[in-house]
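Retro notes (design track)

What went well: tokenization of the new backbones is finally stable.
What didn't: we kept losing track of which sequence belonged to which structure.
Fix going forward: every design gets posted as structure first, then sequence, in one message. First example under the new rule, 225 residues:
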């Protein structure tokens, strides 16, 4: 998989994409993550990529030309499954979308910033708009990091135990059951006996029951799905 991220703040990605699972996945050549500075695609001598909006609204807007230049240059290198814009009014990102995108070959993630982007980009260049929640961030960089991490960890081989990802919360619209480790008794706080029984069928039944109970209590909306 190849993930190209377009941003005006490339420094926000340093450290994150070079750590933990994202780094291991890149070291294994399972994914290539490239962060592109939009200012490099500006023809303005000061490398400006924003301007005042028509109509007199407050704030600044990312211009169409640098973004079009960047996307055009990248599309000459490879074919993209999606060109994504991180927007607070996009569809809300979830585990099912992460699963879908983990099977893609190439995606572009355009990070929104300032007041947003020239709307013509959304009309003519973007194939999908995604939000990570009903709130507004300073820019889409954090959203791009969240999406990238959620997608990459699902690529086969990215994490040591692939079954671990399959048992995560939201994979089957249920929250994950409680997990425990040693010691089995700490200050009188004991691990449920069933988990120490060695009876896998009963353990699996207990886990499903716990997942259902926690979902009904904490996220009953998920059960409707």
């Amino acid at each position: 998989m190849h993930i190209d991220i377009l941003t005006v703040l490339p420094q926000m990605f340093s450290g994150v994409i070079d750590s933990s699972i994202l780094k291991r996945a890149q070291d294994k050549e399972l994914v290539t993550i490239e962060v592109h500075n939009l200012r490099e695609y500006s023809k303005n001598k000061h490398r400006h990529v924003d301007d005042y909006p028509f109509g007199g609204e407050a704030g600044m807007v990312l211009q169409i030309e640098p973004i079009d230049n960047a996307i055009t240059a990248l599309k000459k290198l490879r074919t993209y499954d999606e060109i994504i814009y991180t927007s607070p009014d996009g569809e809300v990102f979830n585990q099912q979308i992460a699963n879908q995108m983990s099977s893609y070959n190439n995606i572009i993630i355009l990070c929104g910033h300032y007041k947003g982007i020239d709307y013509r980009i959304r009309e003519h260049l973007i194939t999908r708009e995604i939000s990570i929640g009903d709130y507004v961030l300073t820019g889409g960089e954090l959203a791009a990091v969240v999406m990238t991490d959620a997608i990459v960890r699902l690529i086969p081989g990215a994490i040591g135990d692939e079954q671990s990802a399959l048992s995560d919360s939201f994979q089957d619209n249920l929250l994950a059951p409680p997990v425990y480790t040693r010691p089995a008794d700490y200050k009188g706080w004991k691990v449920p006996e069933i988990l120490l029984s060695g009876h896998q069928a009963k353990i699996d039944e207990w886990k499903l029951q716990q997942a259902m109970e926690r979902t009904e209590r904490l996220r009953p909306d998920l059960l409707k799905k």
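Added context from the reviewer: The domain at 169-223 is CATH 1.10.1270.20 (Trp Operon Repressor; Chain A).
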